[in-house]
Design a protein that fits this description.
172 residues; mainly alpha
């Protein structure tokens, strides 16, 4: 797969195949190569995260060290996405609760838990800085996440839920 020309949807499918193969015993060396390729661009990295966070793979609940290492290596792409994933799933959970959509509430909760676990396992001060910046953007401060927050058009309750989720994973 060429990440420069691959679509978000193609990346999701490639990542699903990858995670299934990792669960079945793919070598770390081969897995690292594919992960690194998927993390080269924002669209393909987004696809990797969608596949990882929303499907039932062993690696989704217990990310191996080499996956976490590759997420660290590609931090310029992955750290902002991790902050966005935590915010979006937290805000979306609230919408599902309002709509009394229990199945999608559980799905959002799963994404929140998995994202929080990855953030905790990575335990990086640069990632923490992205999370802090996201929290500030939710509070109205102008920074790298301001356009994202504006585009998402979250209401006050959604911003509060997202900020609470961020607060739980921030390094103390």
């Amino acid at each position: 797969m060429n990440p420069a020309s691959a679509s978000f949807e193609q990346a999701i499918e490639e990542a699903k195949t990858l995670f299934g193969s990792i669960d079945s015993g793919m070598s770390e060396e081969n897995a690292r190569k594919i992960i690194a390729t998927l993390l080269q661009t924002v669209p393909t990295a987004r696809g990797l995260f969608v596949a990882l966070l929303t499907n039932e793979f062993k690696v989704s609940d217990c990310p191996p060290h080499f996956l976490l290492d590759e997420l660290r290596i590609a931090s310029a792409v992955t750290f902002p996405l991790m902050a966005k994933n935590l915010v979006m799933s937290s805000a979306t959970k609230l919408v599902h609760q309002r709509n009394k959509d229990d199945a999608n509430v559980r799905g959002s909760e799963q994404v929140i838990l998995r994202t929080a676990k990855m953030i905790s396992c990575i335990n990086d001060s640069d990632l923490n800085q992205h999370l802090l910046e996201m929290q500030k953007a939710l509070a109205g401060e102008q920074n790298q996440f301001s356009d994202f927050v504006k585009r998402m058009n979250y209401d006050e309750d959604q911003r509060s839920a997202a900020s609470d989720a961020l607060e739980k994973v921030l390094l103390k």
